[in-house]
User: Fold these one by one.
Assistant:
Number 1:
Amino acid sequence: MGIKKKLGIGLYYSDYLLKDEVLNFLSKNIRVYPTLMKNRWRRSILLMLNKKISLFMGSAADKIERQFIKKRYFTNLKKIRGKIANKGIARGHAWVLSPSNKNQVAKARKMKKGDILIAPMTRPQFMEAFGKASAIVTDEGGITCHAAVISRELGIPCITGANFATKIFKDGDMIEVNANNGIVRKI
């Protein structure tokens, strides 16, 4: 039996486990509650300051984001750089699955053919959107992350590690993904 099953949480939420929670479960059989994982998935920030890691959830995460990530930094940005995960060039309307979306999977299903999928990270639950996307851009990840692998399987351009793409671009923005140079820009 896998650890995720033993812990009683679904595969989707298992990415939000902390190392100590897994170790405590294995050594002391201390359970992790699915509702805690679901709340972390909805809204959380993991922050490292002075070599100390802190986890914030819900309104505390919102407060930390306002404190450290100012909106004004993003309002005038027209282009960003990221890691080239799969080469190619695509133009289309942005379809942003931001962490603030209550149900990212439902929004992903409504995506139109040719839109550019922008997300913090992709998940298998976005499969329907992948088939419609002309390109994928993620805030996080590298050349071996889920989005990179999917883009190579589908033969569409992909840029990962674009940091704040979900904050810079809005639904409907006309953008160009130049995955030959690692640039995403509004056009």
Number 2:
Amino acid sequence: MIIPLRTDSPLRSTPWMNWAIIAANVIVYVIERRNPALELDWALSPRNPQLTDYLTYMWLHANIGHLVMNMLFLYIFGNNVNDRMGHLGYLGFYLAGGVFAGVGHALTQAAPVVGASGAVAAVTGAYLVLFPRSSITIIYLLFFIGTIEIPSMWFIAFFFAKDVVLNFSAEPTGTAHMAHVFGTVFGFGVCFALLSVQLLPRDQFDVVALVQRWNKRRQYRDMVSRGYDPFGYIPPAGARAVQQEP
């Protein structure tokens, strides 16, 4: 078992909206425990979905462990995404991610679903675009307990791959894996598009900047392989060297 503890991405402002979303999830969970019928009314049922269910299901949780893990991931990754998107932009992105994840679940599964994990997955997908070179400290619980720092890209990719694999597993896991997959794809794709059209503040270490630098290196290698160096002429292989008179 691995649990995220913190990232090394510094904050430039206080992520009030992310904290408000976490608080709202906790408050709804308390209300839900006192009114169990709320889960029947607000859950997303793929067999008979209501439009409002795509917004309400993401605020419910099956148990305290479900809530804690979702809110931990949201706190770890959402603070930085909120910092980059701004408060209203982040709220709209979070809700849209949850709706898209719910649609993905309804299209591929039949069981009712509750939980913020689809929206949280969208946040982790956005984090991967905005901070691909960051690191995350995790706690691992195997034969012993310890902490280790790994690239956040590996961590997010691991959970994405796990959801893809377990979705096609013969054994039911009781987890909405396709909601996670659709949420992550939504977060990555939308955030990449927003950066590309400069509707989000650019950074020299975001995914778009890394792709642009990779493309420039590729173009340079292609030119060199054809015998042209933009910084000076490279004679073709086998050409006779010309010596200049002193």
